[in-house]
Amino acid sequence: MDDLQATLRQQPNRRVLGVFPFYLWAWNVPDPDKFDERNLERGKKLEKLNAKRADKEKPPKKFKPAGTWWRETVGEPPVIYDSAAAKVSVQQIELYLLKHGWFDAEASFEMFPIKKRQGKVVYTISAKEPYTIRSLILNIPDEALTIYTEKSRSDRNTLQAGDQFNIEKLDAERELLNQYFRNRGYYDFNKELLYFNVDSSLSAHQVDLTLGIVPRKVPYPGDPDSLVTVPYKRYTIENITIIDKPYERNKPIFNSDTLIIENYRLIDQNQLLVKPKILAQNILFKPGEYYEIANITRTYRRLSTLPIVGATSIQFFPLTEEEDNTYLRSVISITPTSKQAIAFEANGTNRGGFLGISGSANYRNKNAFGSAELFAFNISGGVEAQQLLTQSESNNPGVAGIRNNTYFNTLEFGPEISLTFPTFLLPVKAERFAKSADPKTTIRANLSYQLRPDYERTRSFGAITYLWSESDRKKWQVSPLEVSLIKIFRSPEFDAQLIEIGDPFLINSFQDHFIVDARVVYTYNTQPTGPAKKNLYFYSASIETAGNALRGLYSLSNAQKNDQGSYEVSGIAFAQYIKTQHDFRYYRNHNEKMETAYRLIGGVGVPLANLNVLPFEKSFFGGGANDIRAWQARTLGPGSYRDPQRNFDKIGDILLEANVEYRFALIDVVEAAFFLDAGNIWTINSDPARPGADFEFDRFVSEIAFGTGTGVRLNFDFFIIRLDLGLQIKDPSLDRGERWLFQSKEAYNDYIDNLNADRPSDSQLNYYRWRWNLNLGIGYPF
After folding, report:
1. Which end of the chain is more exposed for a tag (fewer CB within 10 A), N or C?
2. Nearest to 361 by CA among 383, 381, 339, 384
3. How far apart are CA 186 and CA 671, in angstroms?
4. Could you give phi then psi for residue 396, rounded to 5 degrees?
5. How many domains does the chain have?
């Protein structure tokens, strides 16, 4: 239906969410009469200004009428009914139906007034039985291409007898066969050499198809005026030359060496300064092989992923001009980019009215050891105002400072270093994988330090990760070893409050722990290979486990346990758990300016014996700029648990979330969106200190939180700045019957009255009011 709608010569004015004609409204907002008066005055002033500029021999300034920018850039003029365009639309509809098998279809139109100066055009289609394919025969004079055509068609189930006739499917078949031939050595073949003949003279609404290939004809030897049919040539790559070129034009070249490595000829002009083995490793075709367009495309992508490479050109030339030549030579030109880069970034944060500032510095070396290794060093830090978890005589001034948003009581600081190799390091041998797998190894380490009045937290982290591609759409990431050491120093007041609460979950979450885990991530993504398609998909699945091998070894060695029944490494308990998460996304592109994005994400982490809780870093949380945006980060859930007095980070073992976002362009780089988010987190085990936090099948649906809102985005292509305003429309922490925004909140307000009875006058809690949350983010939320 969308394709048929697209054939109409006159489309109605675009509507946001299919309801509001925003762009037409933008066109009508300016008053042309008022702007005519203003433009007359501005025109007179501009004449005087240009006269003065002429005296100074300066070029005149152009007149820019007021109001036209908004109308022409944002607005869309009203679509005026045109009967001639409607008649052309009828012809286009009939042509579309003809191409899709309805040879006898007829269309007509009629105009109906619906309002003053408004109407609708109704197109009526009379489509009889569509034509189907009775048979398909081949008319290919080239025996080898006949065999390849039969082989190609036997591997798929497209364009078969019984299918409805469809010109688009015929064209797709031509494209598939063309690619098939060009992947088997037919370098100079093209789609225009393939054709279909259609015989529709049959009865019973059927057609016979003939698939043919234009014969290749060459002059007859000894008689140039005569032509003879010969087979199409299948080309072999004879030699490959790699040349590194200056990334700056006219840059002098001091040295030039010629090397032979893995049958590739390298003209080294000392520009790229990358070991020849790395270049050979990323070129997916070699001498002696038949020409294959897929490998050429993959080579482009592989070379472009090397951080030191700025641009790549791959050209093929016939080895000789002789008619019977079937050999090609290839020239690969590689232009380097700048080896080193430094970037600085500064940000402001606003978390529920508490302000903060942060910044980072990043250094990148794109060819660290001469093998296109990417070395990155990043250091970041910031200060922020946060609500205190405890109150005491020593920190009351901080509370006052936070209320005035002038006192930054939280410090975060952390350096990170990483090194990415364009190959597998031991113990994995790159030779076990095809070149097309694009293997990489990343070694990463960082230190994260956080200082708050309530506690001081340090996290040391190190990991090795292997990455490779199963195909253009399927990616794998395996981290056989990730090590984290978390040290927490709690203030006496915070310790006292944890003891008062008596929640083992919270106590274990704020203790020192050690994590040794392994993780596997699989990603399927159609976006890089199909950006122009209407339907795009993304799926990511991960599974990780920690502590099982360690606990097994300690158990076998009869090691001593601590008071909590946990084994320790150097006096620190290690985490033991298994966790999995799944993220599915679907993108529907309505047109070049409108898109709807859907996401469904879920995960579960099962804490095991050695720590009994999922580590804070591995737990799920709800709320935030990329989550359920009506809640601040880590403030939703778990389940229906409610505690307005304390501001502990809220985490859980189970995550369920769904999101829908409608995105549309406004002007230039400005986009807007409407969104609906739903979900929550839960714990696996019940917790007396947090009633309602655990997952139960008979009530989890009623504990799904809902938030909605709107956002504005600045899309600069290379990055997106996003501002989203969310409103809580269902809060599962409220009593049943009060969770939806429109329901009475009497029970909640009574609950607040009871809490306020024991609180000092300067720290009274507020009654329920509409809860808004403003998020600042980078990039789309999903």
Report:
1. N
2. 381
3. 45
4. -55, -40
5. 5
Where residue 476 sits, what CATH number does that domain have?
2.40.160.50
Last residue of a domain, one of 126, 152, 176: 126
What share of the chain has pLDDT > 70, as a percent? Answer: 88
DSSP per-residue string spanning 13-51: PP-BTTTB-HHHHHHHSS-HHHHHHHHHHHHHHHHHHHH
User: Do both 540 and 410 map to the same domain?
Assistant: no
Instruction: Specify whether 381 is located in the same domain as 471.
Output: no
CA distance 407 to 400: 8
Q: Residue 694 domain-assigned?
A: yes
Contact in structure between 180 and 292 (CB atoms under 8 Å): no
Please write the tens of the pLDDT for every residue from 31-57: 666 666 677 777 777 788 888 888 777
Query: Which range has the worst mean pLDDT, 129-138, 287-296, 423-432, 563-572?
Result: 423-432
Q: Domain check: are 205 and 256 in the same one?
A: no
Residue 140, pLDDT above cutoff 50: yes
Q: What type of residue is 470?
A: E
The continuous run of DSSP H or E covering 161 comes out as none
How is residue 290 annotated by DSSP? B
679 part of a folded domain: yes
Task: Answer yes or no: do 451 and 463 share one domain.
Answer: no
User: In the prediction, which pLDDT does 66 show?
Assistant: 56
CB 577 within 8 A of CB 550: no
For residue 458, the SS3 value is: strand
Let me know whether 200 and 266 are in one domain: no
Whole-angstrom Cα distance, residue 373 to residue 20? 52
Task: Compute φ and ψ for 150, nearest 5 degrees.
Answer: -65, -40
pTM of the entire structure? Answer: 0.77
Owner of token pair 């996304």? 585
| Amino acid at site 602 | G
Same domain, 395 and 332: no
Closest CA to 328 of 237, 232, 233: 237
Residue 263 belongs to domain spanning = 236-336
In this prediction, residues 179-186 reach a mean pLDDT of: 94
Nearest to 9 by CA among 59, 84, 106, 75: 84
Q: How far is CA 215 from CA 146, 149, 206, 676, in A?
A: 12, 15, 28, 58
pLDDT for 258:
77
Give dist(CA 134, CA 205) in Å, integer. 9
Q: Which residues pair with 599 in a beta bridge?
A: 585, 659
What are residue 173's phi and psi, to 5 degrees?
A: -65, -40
Crossing angle between the packed helical segments 143-154 and 167-182, to the nearest 10 degrees: 120
Predicted local distance difference test score (pLDDT) of residue 592: 75
| Residue 222 backbone class (left: φ over 0; alpha: ψ -120 to 50; beta: rest) | left
pLDDT of the residue at 683: 92
Do residues 110 and 183 make contact, with C-beta atoms less than 8 angstroms apart? Answer: no
**Residue indicated by tokens 């050109």:** 313
**Is 478 among the domain residues?**
yes
Is residue 532's pLDDT more than 70?
no
Helix ranges, 690-780 (H): 746-756
Residue 36 lies in a domain: no
Confidence of residue 667 (pLDDT cuts 50, 70, 90): confident
Name the 3-class secondary structure at 347.
strand
**What pLDDT does 456 receive?**
85
How far apart, in whole angstroms, are the C-alpha atoms of residue 630 and residue 729?
9
Task: Indicate whether 418 and 351 sit together in one domain.
Answer: yes
SS3 673: strand
- C-alpha triplet 568, 688, 627: angle, nearest 5°: 80
Asked whether the beta carbons of 662 and 677 are under 8 A apart, the reply is no
- The reply to whether 218 and 109 lie within a common domain is no
